[in-house]
Amino acid sequence: MQLRELKIDRSFVAQMTTSTRDAVIVRSTVDLGRNLGLRVVAEGVEDSLTLQHLDLLGCHAVQGYHISRPVPPDHLINWLEHQAAPAAQPRG
């Protein structure tokens, strides 16, 4: 099995805009993942400021309530079809 993705735990992401320590951990983890050729995903994105910071860091994808609350499988296609926010879309 080959490692393809690196997730950053929500415990670091949630405080990255208010904690220098967590911001350094998130930035270093994004850099590490990108340097290893991995897709980097941040969990626990709860607001637009955090989303903006992750975008500037070059994080590939995000998960969290700012994007969407959990969606039942039978509603997922409909939800995806109605999304227009480019930040919610994974990048290369």
Give the gist of this structure:
The protein is an alpha/beta fold and 92 residues long.
Question: What labels would you give this structure?
Answer:
alpha/beta; three-stranded parallel beta sheet; 42% helix
> Roughly what percent helix?
40-55%
Roughly how many Å apart are the termini?
Answer: 21 Å
- Low-confidence runs of at least 5 consecutive residues: none
Q: Got a strand count?
A: 3
* Strands ordered across the widest β-sheet: 1-2-3
Q: Return the average pLDDT rounded to an integer.
A: 88
Give the helix tally.
4
Strand content: 5-15%
**Main sheet overview:** 3 strands, parallel
Describe the global form: globular
How would you portray this structure in words?
This protein has helices spanning 10-13, 20-35, 48-57, 73-81; strands at 5-8, 39-42, 61-62. By secondary structure, it is α/β, with parallel strands linked by helices. It has a three-stranded parallel β-sheet. Helix 3 (48-57) links the parallel strand 2 (39-42) and strand 3. The longest helix is centred in the first third of the chain and has 16 residues, at 20-35.
